[in-house]
Amino acid sequence: MDRRRLVPRTDAVLADPRLVEAGGRLGRQVVKAAVAAAQDRARQGEIGPDDVADAAVAALPTRAASLRPVVNATGVLIHTNLGRAPLSAAAVEAMTAAAGPADVEFDLATGARARRGRNAAEALAAAVPAAADVHVVNNNAAALVLVATALATGREILISRGELVEIGDGFRIPDLLASTGARLREVGTTNRTSARDYADAVGPATGFVLKVHPSNFRIEGFTGAAEVPELTGLGVPVVVDIGSGLLAREPLLPAEPDATTMIGSGADLVTASGDKLLGGPQAGLLLGRADLVERCRRHPLARALRVDKLTLAALEATLRGPVPPVSQALHADPAVLVRRAAALARRLAGVGVDARDVPSTAAVGGGGAPGVRLPSAAVSLPERLAVPLRTGDPPVVGRVEHARLLLDLRTVPPEHDGDVERAVLAAAEVRG
Ligand SMILES: *Cc1c(COP(=O)(O)O)cnc(C)c1O
Prior knowledge:
Layout: H1 10-14, H2 17-26, H3 28-43, H4 52-59, E1 71-72, H5 89-98, H6 118-127, E2 133-137, H7 140-152, E3 156-160, E4 166-168, E5 171-172, H8 173-178, E6 183-187, H9 195-201, E7 206-212, E8 238-243, H10 259-264, E9 269-273, E10 284-288, H11 290-298, H12 301-304, H13 309-320, H14 325-330, H15 334-350, E11 356-362, E12 374-382, H16 386-390, E13 396-397, E14 399-401, E15 404-408, H17 417-427
Parallel strand pairs: 1-13, 3-6, 3-7, 7-8, 8-9
Antiparallel strand pairs: 2-10, 4-5, 9-10, 11-12, 12-15, 14-15
The protein binds pyridoxal-5'-phosphate.
């Protein structure tokens, strides 16, 4: 008999209550595709005609978007490939609340239009009282483009040869600035630049002096750089790209610049990222002199760089709310990390997994503080578990060192230890 004639019709399968429900959650196209694939399998004889609905249900994705939440056990606090800063629960909740219609540009009391992003801007201004004004754009690169466009198109930006930084993925700050029509005027040398070098280069064509924090590399040896206080008397604005987004001094990262200190030492404008050490959503922060911030905010380009309401909500909650995960990881007590690693390794070893707890060294990552080593603890596993852990559910990403897979707990929130344990058991094919 022709097997194909027994394969149930599409509308009959789609009427299965589980698939109706999934259609509402995931979209009809996704469900139809799963049904078509299951019908194909039945035509091939891989499954029986009565199993088509079950097979379609089993093949459905769990979410409408395929981006998957991952456990970061790399020990790299700000992992660019894993989406940089994980948001706090408060920030996630704020984004969910803002997802529908929200008063993003609307004053509920008067019914009139209100300034977009005022709540996030107020929170940022409150966090950095030294800044006379603030503005938020899409990311730090956008903040730099906006400043360069508003203050230096057709003019010169003075920058040290030691600060011509490649941010990552082939993007370079000098190229970004030049793309605005500003001319870069390099001063000093790779290893040493003095205040005199800047002073000699300042002229009528100077738009501003730019200091860029070398956030992802270090040069050592015979080095020297002019600091902000030495550059404030040149008669042109001093703009400082601090990179990481620290708003105030962080004692654990003494070499990392922060917005408050920079403005206090005379910077006219500071730019920073929202999703590095600040621990918030992708955003670019502009802080400093009111007239300069206003010129940036009023520039037509500002409209193309503005952030959406979800970012505004998450940024405000990050600034006003509980300590975000990046700061928690940075400040985690090493003794507690050692205890967590020991407990996890003991439970895994107890069911036959080749697991042991080992000391580890975590890092801030591309987001800042190069060379800073944070004492940590890890669970050491056979290297062959790396792939099944990465492709498991949830995916767990560790790092391989000396032919062992290390799961560094500094970047794993304590409440995820159970997930890590279950993931390892599944990867090692041990019944939990
Ligand atoms: C990360 C970084 C940037 C780029 O920031 P984005 O927010 O990713 O655009 C620019 N400058 C410095 C110094 C950085 O560290």
